[in-house]
Design goal:
The protein is α+β, with helices and mostly antiparallel strands and 181 residues long. The protein contains 3 helices and 7 strands, in the order αααβββββββ. It has a single domain, classed as Alpha-Beta Complex (endopeptidase fold (from Nostoc punctiforme)).
């Protein structure tokens, strides 16, 4: 259930409403709108990501869940080291440091039927986390995921943590994702 990126325009006010954004959020937002190709065709951009992060032998088709691939790309471009076997979403529970209360740019892992999902925290409302991730409705987009599905919240290692890394409470709007496979 993608949510219109305009709902997160407040992120564009970096330095005003929100201090400079975490690099992983910046990198993730630059990829919003990338879709997997329908049917047996593969989106060459997604396959190129696998080569960029050194996983081209493990990742060969965009029909394979790619949330972990997306997160590995975002982490690498932001200067962070992905966990071992980053294609497995729940392996991101070993990334960085425990976050406690999630904040902007934290890596969240979720349990779903048949496996897991990984995405970046953007905000939250009373019942859901608002996240940006890959392979959400077969694309890079913002969506909402129920808080009860949270498996782990991990904070990237920072030399100087941005002041924007904190929780953000927003109005519940848009559909709630139930399975990101």
């Amino acid at each position: 259930m993608p949510i219109d990126p305009k709902n997160y325009a407040w992120l564009d006010n970096a330095g005003k409403v929100v201090p400079p954004l975490p690099r992983m959020v910046v990198e993730a937002r630059s990829l919003v709108g990338v879709h997997e190709a329908p049917g047996a065709v593969d989106n060459p951009a997604i396959l190129k990501w696998a080569g960029e992060v050194g996983l081209n032998h493990e990742y060969t088709a965009d029909s394979v869940p790619w949330c972990g691939l997306f997160m590995a790309l975002v982490a690498k471009r932001a200067g962070k080291t992905p966990p071992a076997a980053p294609l497995w979403a729940l392996n991101w529970a070993k990334f960085g440091d425990p976050a406690g209360q999630p904040g902007l740019g934290d890596v969240l892992t979720f349990i779903r039927e048949g496996g897991g999902h990984v995405a970046l925290y953007i905000a939250e409302d009373a019942t859901t986390y608002h996240v940006i991730g890959g392979n959400q409705s077969d694309q890079v987009c913002f969506t909402r995921i129920e808080k009860g599905r949270l498996h782990s919240a991990r904070r990237p290692h920072y030399m100087n943590q941005p002041a924007s890394v904190r929780p953000y409470i927003v109005t519940a709007q848009g559909g709630v994702s139930t399975n990101e496979a």
